[in-house]
Amino acid sequence: MLKHIKLWVLSGVLILLMITSAGCHLVTKSDSNNNTTVIEEIATVDTGYKVYYLSENKFSINGIEHKFVSETPSGLIAECLNLLGTQPDSSDYLQTIPAEVEVADYEYDENMKQVNIYFSSEYTQIEKSEEILVRAAIVKTLTQFDGEIDYVQFFVDNQALLEKNGSVMMMKKSDFVESTRADLKNLKERKLNLYFAGSDGTALVKEVVCVHYLNTATAEQVIAESLIAGPLTKTLNQTISSDTKLNSVSISEGTCYIDFNQKFLEKINKQSFEINVYSVVNSLCQLSGVEKVMITINGSAVTKIYDGVDIQSPLNANEDMVLQQGESPLADNESETSKK
Prior knowledge:
Elements: E1 3-5, H1 7-20, E2 24-30, E3 37-43, E4 50-55, E5 61-65, H2 73-84, E6 93-94, E7 103-109, E8 114-119, H3 128-142, E9 151-156, E10 159-160, E11 170-171, E12 188-197, E13 204-213, H4 219-229, E14 246-252, E15 255-260, H5 273-284, E16 292-297, E17 300-301
Parallel strand pairs: 8-9, 15-16
Antiparallel strand pairs: 1-7, 2-3, 4-5, 4-6, 7-8, 9-10, 9-11, 12-13, 14-15, 16-17
Protein backbone atom coordinates (compact mmCIF):
# COMPACT_ATOMS: atom_id res chain seq x y z
CA MET A 1 0.00 0.00 0.00
CA LEU A 2 1.41 3.37 -0.99
CA LYS A 3 1.80 6.02 1.65
CA HIS A 4 -0.27 8.85 0.19
CA ILE A 5 0.74 12.24 1.54
CA LYS A 6 -0.33 15.68 0.29
CA LEU A 7 2.44 18.25 -0.12
CA TRP A 8 0.45 21.05 1.45
CA VAL A 9 0.05 19.03 4.65
CA LEU A 10 3.82 18.69 4.98
CA SER A 11 4.77 22.28 4.15
CA GLY A 12 4.05 23.46 7.69
CA VAL A 13 5.92 20.50 9.13
CA LEU A 14 8.97 21.36 7.03
CA ILE A 15 8.98 24.94 8.28
CA LEU A 16 8.72 23.74 11.87
CA LEU A 17 11.56 21.24 11.35
CA MET A 18 13.79 23.94 9.88
CA ILE A 19 13.16 26.16 12.90
CA THR A 20 13.70 23.46 15.53
CA SER A 21 16.56 21.54 13.90
CA ALA A 22 19.59 21.14 16.16
CA GLY A 23 22.02 20.26 13.39
CA CYS A 24 21.44 16.49 13.42
CA HIS A 25 19.64 14.05 11.14
CA LEU A 26 18.62 10.42 11.26
CA VAL A 27 19.87 7.60 9.04
CA THR A 28 18.91 3.94 8.80
CA LYS A 29 21.29 1.01 9.07
CA SER A 30 21.12 -2.75 9.44
CA ASP A 31 21.13 -4.28 12.91
CA SER A 32 23.41 -7.35 12.81
CA ASN A 33 21.50 -9.02 15.67
CA ASN A 34 18.04 -9.17 14.16
CA ASN A 35 18.45 -7.80 10.62
CA THR A 36 15.89 -5.07 11.27
CA THR A 37 16.25 -1.40 10.43
CA VAL A 38 17.27 0.90 13.27
CA ILE A 39 17.61 4.65 13.46
CA GLU A 40 20.86 6.32 14.42
CA GLU A 41 21.26 10.03 15.01
CA ILE A 42 24.38 11.62 13.52
CA ALA A 43 25.61 15.16 12.99
CA THR A 44 24.61 16.80 9.72
CA VAL A 45 28.01 18.44 9.26
CA ASP A 46 29.51 17.55 5.87
CA THR A 47 26.84 15.01 4.95
CA GLY A 48 27.61 15.33 1.27
CA TYR A 49 23.90 15.63 0.44
CA LYS A 50 23.02 18.09 -2.30
CA VAL A 51 20.12 19.72 -4.07
CA TYR A 52 20.59 19.78 -7.84
CA TYR A 53 19.66 22.95 -9.70
CA LEU A 54 19.85 24.05 -13.34
CA SER A 55 22.68 26.34 -14.34
CA GLU A 56 21.67 29.83 -15.44
CA ASN A 57 22.25 28.93 -19.11
CA LYS A 58 20.28 25.67 -18.72
CA PHE A 59 23.20 23.65 -20.10
CA SER A 60 23.97 21.67 -16.95
CA ILE A 61 22.89 20.83 -13.41
CA ASN A 62 24.95 21.50 -10.33
CA GLY A 63 24.65 20.20 -6.78
CA ILE A 64 24.55 22.64 -3.88
CA GLU A 65 25.33 21.24 -0.41
CA HIS A 66 22.30 21.19 1.88
CA LYS A 67 21.73 20.02 5.46
CA PHE A 68 18.43 18.17 5.34
CA VAL A 69 16.38 18.29 8.52
CA SER A 70 13.69 15.69 7.79
CA GLU A 71 13.80 12.38 9.64
CA THR A 72 11.71 10.11 7.40
CA PRO A 73 11.70 9.23 3.68
CA SER A 74 8.36 11.02 3.21
CA GLY A 75 9.72 14.07 4.96
CA LEU A 76 12.85 14.04 2.81
CA ILE A 77 10.76 13.82 -0.35
CA ALA A 78 8.65 16.79 0.66
CA GLU A 79 11.73 18.77 1.66
CA CYS A 80 13.46 17.96 -1.65
CA LEU A 81 10.45 18.91 -3.77
CA ASN A 82 10.02 22.13 -1.84
CA LEU A 83 13.69 23.06 -2.42
CA LEU A 84 13.64 22.01 -6.08
CA GLY A 85 10.65 24.28 -6.65
CA THR A 86 12.29 27.28 -4.97
CA GLN A 87 14.79 29.70 -6.49
CA PRO A 88 18.19 29.07 -4.80
CA ASP A 89 20.08 31.94 -3.16
CA SER A 90 22.78 31.95 -5.83
CA SER A 91 21.93 33.83 -9.02
CA ASP A 92 24.12 31.37 -10.93
CA TYR A 93 21.39 28.71 -10.68
CA LEU A 94 17.72 28.38 -11.53
CA GLN A 95 15.09 26.47 -9.58
CA THR A 96 14.77 22.95 -10.97
CA ILE A 97 10.97 22.73 -11.14
CA PRO A 98 9.73 25.77 -13.11
CA ALA A 99 7.42 28.13 -11.23
CA GLU A 100 4.54 27.45 -13.62
CA VAL A 101 4.73 23.68 -13.00
CA GLU A 102 2.77 22.48 -9.98
CA VAL A 103 3.69 19.37 -8.01
CA ALA A 104 0.14 18.32 -7.31
CA ASP A 105 0.93 15.27 -5.23
CA TYR A 106 3.35 12.42 -4.66
CA GLU A 107 3.29 8.84 -3.36
CA TYR A 108 6.00 6.92 -1.53
CA ASP A 109 6.15 3.12 -1.55
CA GLU A 110 8.39 2.06 1.33
CA ASN A 111 8.58 -1.56 0.15
CA MET A 112 9.70 -0.74 -3.39
CA LYS A 113 11.61 2.37 -2.25
CA GLN A 114 9.87 4.24 -5.05
CA VAL A 115 8.48 7.76 -5.40
CA ASN A 116 5.70 8.68 -7.84
CA ILE A 117 5.51 12.43 -8.53
CA TYR A 118 2.39 13.98 -10.06
CA PHE A 119 2.96 17.16 -12.10
CA SER A 120 0.43 19.55 -13.62
CA SER A 121 -0.05 19.70 -17.40
CA GLU A 122 2.39 22.64 -17.62
CA TYR A 123 5.22 20.11 -17.29
CA THR A 124 4.75 19.19 -20.96
CA GLN A 125 5.59 22.80 -21.94
CA ILE A 126 9.18 22.49 -20.71
CA GLU A 127 11.60 22.46 -23.66
CA LYS A 128 13.01 18.99 -24.31
CA SER A 129 16.65 19.92 -23.63
CA GLU A 130 15.67 21.55 -20.34
CA GLU A 131 13.24 18.77 -19.37
CA ILE A 132 16.01 16.15 -19.50
CA LEU A 133 18.02 18.20 -17.02
CA VAL A 134 14.96 18.72 -14.82
CA ARG A 135 14.47 14.95 -14.68
CA ALA A 136 18.14 14.34 -13.92
CA ALA A 137 18.21 16.94 -11.14
CA ILE A 138 15.06 15.62 -9.46
CA VAL A 139 16.17 11.98 -9.61
CA LYS A 140 19.71 12.70 -8.40
CA THR A 141 18.37 14.79 -5.50
CA LEU A 142 15.84 12.18 -4.37
CA THR A 143 17.99 9.04 -4.70
CA GLN A 144 21.01 10.08 -2.64
CA PHE A 145 19.77 9.13 0.84
CA ASP A 146 21.50 5.85 1.69
CA GLY A 147 19.07 3.60 -0.17
CA GLU A 148 15.86 5.17 1.18
CA ILE A 149 14.69 5.95 -2.38
CA ASP A 150 15.82 3.89 -5.36
CA TYR A 151 13.29 4.67 -8.10
CA VAL A 152 11.38 7.72 -9.30
CA GLN A 153 8.44 7.80 -11.69
CA PHE A 154 6.90 10.95 -13.21
CA PHE A 155 3.22 11.49 -13.96
CA VAL A 156 1.69 14.42 -15.87
CA ASP A 157 -2.08 14.82 -15.44
CA ASN A 158 -2.04 11.33 -13.88
CA GLN A 159 -0.46 9.82 -17.02
CA ALA A 160 2.94 8.15 -16.60
CA LEU A 161 5.80 9.53 -18.69
CA LEU A 162 6.93 6.98 -21.29
CA GLU A 163 10.18 6.16 -23.06
CA LYS A 164 10.37 6.48 -26.85
CA ASN A 165 9.63 2.76 -27.15
CA GLY A 166 6.41 3.14 -25.14
CA SER A 167 7.72 1.57 -21.92
CA VAL A 168 7.14 3.26 -18.57
CA MET A 169 9.91 5.69 -17.66
CA MET A 170 11.18 4.34 -14.34
CA MET A 171 14.30 6.27 -13.30
CA LYS A 172 17.14 5.54 -10.93
CA LYS A 173 20.34 7.35 -10.03
CA SER A 174 22.54 5.50 -12.53
CA ASP A 175 20.30 6.57 -15.44
CA PHE A 176 22.00 9.96 -15.18
CA VAL A 177 25.64 9.00 -14.68
CA GLU A 178 27.93 12.04 -14.48
CA SER A 179 25.19 14.37 -15.70
CA THR A 180 26.02 17.27 -13.41
CA ARG A 181 28.25 19.30 -15.75
CA ALA A 182 28.27 18.96 -19.52
CA ASP A 183 27.07 20.49 -22.75
CA LEU A 184 23.54 19.34 -23.59
CA LYS A 185 24.36 18.90 -27.27
CA ASN A 186 26.38 15.86 -26.21
CA LEU A 187 23.55 14.21 -24.28
CA LYS A 188 23.25 10.52 -25.11
CA GLU A 189 20.32 8.16 -24.88
CA ARG A 190 21.00 4.45 -25.29
CA LYS A 191 19.19 1.15 -25.00
CA LEU A 192 21.25 -1.44 -23.12
CA ASN A 193 20.95 -5.13 -22.33
CA LEU A 194 21.81 -5.72 -18.68
CA TYR A 195 22.06 -9.20 -17.19
CA PHE A 196 20.73 -9.84 -13.69
CA ALA A 197 19.95 -12.98 -11.71
CA GLY A 198 16.68 -14.82 -12.21
CA SER A 199 14.38 -15.40 -9.24
CA ASP A 200 16.12 -18.63 -8.20
CA GLY A 201 19.62 -17.16 -8.60
CA THR A 202 20.93 -19.95 -10.84
CA ALA A 203 21.02 -18.14 -14.19
CA LEU A 204 21.07 -14.71 -15.81
CA VAL A 205 18.08 -12.97 -17.39
CA LYS A 206 18.35 -10.07 -19.82
CA GLU A 207 16.75 -6.76 -18.87
CA VAL A 208 16.42 -4.11 -21.58
CA VAL A 209 16.74 -0.55 -20.23
CA CYS A 210 17.00 2.93 -21.72
CA VAL A 211 19.57 5.16 -20.02
CA HIS A 212 20.47 8.83 -20.44
CA TYR A 213 23.99 10.12 -19.91
CA LEU A 214 26.35 12.86 -21.03
CA ASN A 215 29.70 12.68 -22.76
CA THR A 216 31.60 12.80 -19.48
CA ALA A 217 30.59 9.15 -19.00
CA THR A 218 31.25 6.15 -21.23
CA ALA A 219 28.85 3.35 -22.12
CA GLU A 220 30.98 0.86 -20.21
CA GLN A 221 30.84 3.06 -17.11
CA VAL A 222 27.06 3.39 -17.41
CA ILE A 223 26.70 -0.41 -17.71
CA ALA A 224 28.85 -1.03 -14.63
CA GLU A 225 27.05 1.58 -12.51
CA SER A 226 23.66 0.26 -13.64
CA LEU A 227 24.59 -3.28 -12.60
CA ILE A 228 25.64 -2.01 -9.18
CA ALA A 229 22.34 -0.10 -8.86
CA GLY A 230 20.38 -3.29 -9.58
CA PRO A 231 17.46 -4.29 -11.83
CA LEU A 232 14.21 -2.44 -12.45
CA THR A 233 12.26 -5.63 -13.07
CA LYS A 234 10.77 -6.87 -9.80
CA THR A 235 11.25 -10.57 -10.70
CA LEU A 236 15.01 -10.15 -11.12
CA ASN A 237 17.69 -10.04 -8.44
CA GLN A 238 20.83 -7.98 -7.95
CA THR A 239 24.07 -9.64 -9.07
CA ILE A 240 26.58 -7.30 -7.43
CA SER A 241 26.55 -5.91 -3.90
CA SER A 242 25.29 -2.32 -3.81
CA ASP A 243 28.39 -1.54 -1.73
CA THR A 244 30.60 -2.42 -4.68
CA LYS A 245 32.64 0.52 -5.95
CA LEU A 246 33.69 0.91 -9.57
CA ASN A 247 37.32 2.04 -9.47
CA SER A 248 37.92 2.26 -13.22
CA VAL A 249 36.82 0.87 -16.57
CA SER A 250 38.38 1.20 -20.03
CA ILE A 251 38.56 -0.57 -23.39
CA SER A 252 41.77 -1.44 -25.23
CA GLU A 253 42.34 -3.73 -28.23
CA GLY A 254 39.11 -5.64 -27.84
CA THR A 255 39.33 -6.12 -24.07
CA CYS A 256 37.36 -4.18 -21.47
CA TYR A 257 39.40 -3.73 -18.28
CA ILE A 258 37.20 -3.17 -15.23
CA ASP A 259 38.36 -2.73 -11.65
CA PHE A 260 36.15 -3.03 -8.55
CA ASN A 261 36.75 -2.91 -4.83
CA GLN A 262 36.74 -6.06 -2.67
CA LYS A 263 32.92 -5.99 -2.35
CA PHE A 264 32.62 -7.40 -5.87
CA LEU A 265 33.77 -10.77 -4.53
CA GLU A 266 30.78 -11.03 -2.20
CA LYS A 267 28.00 -13.40 -3.28
CA ILE A 268 24.42 -12.09 -3.21
CA ASN A 269 21.72 -14.24 -1.60
CA LYS A 270 24.02 -17.29 -1.76
CA GLN A 271 24.13 -17.06 -5.57
CA SER A 272 27.07 -18.58 -7.38
CA PHE A 273 30.01 -16.21 -7.89
CA GLU A 274 29.63 -17.00 -11.59
CA ILE A 275 26.50 -14.84 -11.48
CA ASN A 276 28.57 -11.83 -10.37
CA VAL A 277 31.19 -12.42 -13.03
CA TYR A 278 29.06 -13.10 -16.09
CA SER A 279 26.53 -10.44 -15.21
CA VAL A 280 29.41 -8.01 -15.85
CA VAL A 281 31.06 -9.87 -18.72
CA ASN A 282 27.89 -10.51 -20.72
CA SER A 283 26.65 -6.94 -20.21
CA LEU A 284 29.93 -5.38 -21.35
CA CYS A 285 30.44 -7.71 -24.32
CA GLN A 286 27.41 -6.17 -26.04
CA LEU A 287 29.51 -3.09 -26.76
CA SER A 288 31.12 -2.73 -30.15
CA GLY A 289 34.82 -3.46 -29.89
CA VAL A 290 34.55 -5.53 -26.71
CA GLU A 291 35.35 -9.22 -27.17
CA LYS A 292 36.61 -10.03 -23.67
CA VAL A 293 36.42 -8.58 -20.16
CA MET A 294 39.23 -8.53 -17.60
CA ILE A 295 38.05 -8.09 -14.01
CA THR A 296 40.49 -6.91 -11.35
CA ILE A 297 40.11 -6.04 -7.68
CA ASN A 298 41.67 -2.83 -6.37
CA GLY A 299 44.09 -2.77 -9.28
CA SER A 300 45.27 -6.38 -9.02
CA ALA A 301 44.29 -9.57 -10.80
CA VAL A 302 42.68 -12.30 -8.68
CA THR A 303 45.39 -14.93 -9.02
CA LYS A 304 43.53 -17.78 -7.37
CA ILE A 305 40.35 -19.56 -8.40
CA TYR A 306 37.62 -17.86 -6.39
CA ASP A 307 34.55 -19.92 -5.54
CA GLY A 308 35.33 -22.22 -8.46
CA VAL A 309 35.62 -19.36 -10.98
CA ASP A 310 38.90 -18.33 -12.60
CA ILE A 311 39.00 -14.60 -13.36
CA GLN A 312 42.76 -14.11 -13.58
CA SER A 313 42.51 -13.87 -17.40
CA PRO A 314 40.09 -12.02 -19.73
CA LEU A 315 36.74 -13.77 -20.19
CA ASN A 316 34.38 -14.11 -23.15
CA ALA A 317 30.61 -13.79 -22.80
CA ASN A 318 28.91 -16.98 -21.65
CA GLU A 319 25.52 -17.37 -23.28
CA ASP A 320 24.98 -20.68 -21.48
CA MET A 321 24.47 -18.62 -18.30
CA VAL A 322 21.49 -16.79 -19.84
CA LEU A 323 17.93 -18.10 -19.79
CA GLN A 324 16.57 -18.10 -23.32
CA GLN A 325 12.99 -17.41 -24.38
CA GLY A 326 10.77 -20.31 -23.35
CA GLU A 327 13.21 -21.84 -20.85
CA SER A 328 11.59 -20.23 -17.83
CA PRO A 329 8.47 -18.21 -16.98
CA LEU A 330 10.87 -15.37 -16.25
CA ALA A 331 11.67 -15.14 -19.95
CA ASP A 332 8.17 -13.79 -20.58
CA ASN A 333 9.01 -10.86 -18.29
CA GLU A 334 12.33 -9.94 -19.90
CA SER A 335 11.01 -6.75 -21.41
CA GLU A 336 9.33 -5.59 -18.19
CA THR A 337 11.32 -2.61 -17.03
CA SER A 338 8.99 -1.18 -14.47
CA LYS A 339 7.97 -2.19 -10.98
CA LYS A 340 4.28 -2.70 -10.52
